[in-house]
Structure formats: C-alpha cells, structure tokens
Inverse folding.
C-alpha cells in the first residue's frame, strides 16, 4: 500500500543538495540578509521558548518580550549599542515579534471560541450617542473626544 505523505513524495536529499548549491552560488550577496533574518528568528525563538517554558514573565507589569524589544530598540537608536546597533535592532524585532504573535494568537483563539472582541457598530453608535461606557470598559463618559469621534464616524 502506497502512502502519499510528504516524506514519500519529496526526494529530500536531492532537494537539500539543490538548496545548498543554490545558496552557495548566492552566498557572496546573501550574507547580510541571511544574517539579519537569522538574528531576528533566533531572538523570536528564544523569546518564544522562554514564554512557553515559564509562561508570561513580567517585570513591573510589563511582559518581558515586549520590554526587551522596546529596551533593545532604545539601546540601538540611542547609540548605546555602538557598532552592534543593527544586531540589537534584530534582537528587538524578534522579541517584539514574539509578543505580538502571542497576542494575535490569543485574540484569534478567543474569536474562534465565539467571543466578540469589538462591539457591533450599532452598539457603539448607540452607546456613544448616550455618552455611556461600552460594556467592556474601554470607553467612559470622560472620553468625550473619542465619543465625539465615534458619533461622527459610526452611523447610528
């Protein structure tokens, strides 16, 4: 009986050899972008591993991956990284990618489970016209500028 799995359809050794040959031909021009991508991916992997291993780590209420991304970007932009400015930016991008990917996955799961993350436009317009808080607590009566904006943008 024949199986049509990816392992049986693709000649992996030949594919790997072809890929290595192709990369070797392009190597003189690919060092920078390959290194950049490797640094970002390594930081994302390390940050994701830490999140998976120890859960959501926080320092002062700020998730570590978000804080590390912002701090590393600040160090790079302020010149504290010296000649390693670009590497710091890549590490920051990997940490931020982990934070935002996790946030997106969490919101996606909540939607898949049937939760509505944003109120329906009609509900927003009705609440804005009354000046009341939206049920999830994101708007209060004190948010008059935002409420006024909603009144002008969302049809009632």
């Amino acid at each position: 009986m024949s199986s049509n799995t990816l392992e049986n359809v693709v000649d992996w050794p030949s594919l790997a050899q072809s890929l290595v040959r192709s990369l070797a031909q392009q190597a003189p021009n690919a060092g920078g972008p390959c290194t950049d991508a490797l640094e970002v991916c390594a930081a994302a992997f390390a940050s994701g591993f830490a999140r998976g291993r120890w859960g959501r780590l926080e320092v002062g209420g700020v998730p570590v991956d978000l804080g590390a991304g912002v701090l590393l970007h600040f160090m790079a932009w302020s010149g504290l990284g010296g000649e390693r400015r670009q590497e710091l930016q890549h590490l920051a991008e990997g940490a931020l990618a982990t934070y935002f990917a996790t946030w997106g996955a969490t919101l996606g799961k909540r939607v898949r489970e049937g939760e509505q993350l944003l109120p329906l436009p009609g509900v927003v317009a009705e609440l804005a016209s009354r000046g009341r808080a939206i049920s999830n607590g994101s708007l209060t009566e004190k948010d008059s500028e935002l409420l006024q904006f909603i009144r002008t943008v969302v049809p009632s």
